[in-house]
Design a protein that fits this description.
Blueprint: E1 2-6, H1 11-22, E2 26-31, E3 42-45, H2 53-61, E4 67-70, H3 79-99, E5 105-111, H4 135-152, E6 157-163, E7 165-167, H5 176-190, E8 194-199, E9 202-203, E10 205-207, H6 208-220, E11 228-231, E12 237-238, H7 239-250, E13 257-262, H8 277-282, H9 291-303
Parallel strand pairs: 1-2, 1-4, 2-3, 4-5, 5-6, 6-11, 7-10, 8-13
Antiparallel strand pairs: 9-12
Helix pairs in contact: 1-6, 2-3, 3-4, 5-7, 7-9
Length: 307
Amino acid sequence: MRVVVLGATGSVGRQVCAAYAAQGWDVHGVARRPAPHLNGCGFTALDLAAAEPGRIAAVLGDPPADVVVNAAGGWGDTEEEMTYSHLRLVRRLVEALALLPHRPRLVHLGSVHEYGPVPAGTLLREDLAPDPVTPYARVKLETSSAVLAAARTGVLDAVVLRAANMSGPHPPQESFLAALMARVSTALAHGGRLELSVADARRDFVDVRDVAQAVMRAGQAPAVGGLVVNIGRGDAVPIGDLVGWLLEAAAFPEDRVDRRAAPVRSKGGDWTRLDIGRARRLLPWAPRIGLRDSVHSMWRTAYGSPG
């Protein structure tokens, strides 16, 4: 069995590659530049948003892929940049898949932010009408919608995984948790105080390695073509808890921490909690890694054990 992972050097892509390799699959990564963790896998250096569909089809079809995973596309600084790296990429990918004589399963990574802000207490189900308000969330929804439209008209076989916020090893540099880790590390190195602005928000977080397992299940599940499937833990966790677990992992002295409340700055809102019943039934999949362990693993991977 062959899998082609688009965005193989990113936070999710690298875990997807590792999960498939551990199961003995022929793994082929695609990204603009190679990375050391892909040693032992096939690799093509390609800017997917710039490449012609025929070039992408050649990577996917020679030899034929059984599963294609789209974990590509960065966060970007502008709506134009995100439209290029997400929507243009997906449109070219759909064209490429339509050129193939066979039909691999496409697993597309969407985002919980596609739903948009909702009142606290809302359980986000797949049948909820999305209403995103930020440029990132709107572009992510457009990409997921393009994939679903092609699947529902029979152009391709695809499923969209709408994933919660992620924790765990190798977070994206632009993420809240990666930025917080860097600040904690700097404060530790210089022996100073750490000033933290902690939002009064609760969000669904899931370990990136659990997401990779969901991707694998979705690649072969028989009854998910054309569907959205939520991937999360099904819990709305206080942001302050994640901050506390990270400080614990770093063994940062509590008496050197100054906390204050702050307004929510997010791509989705101050509350997210996913209904993951469909993932349990159809993939079948459920998260296995606890968030405290996930945050500790994130710190150890980046900085090692304290002391």
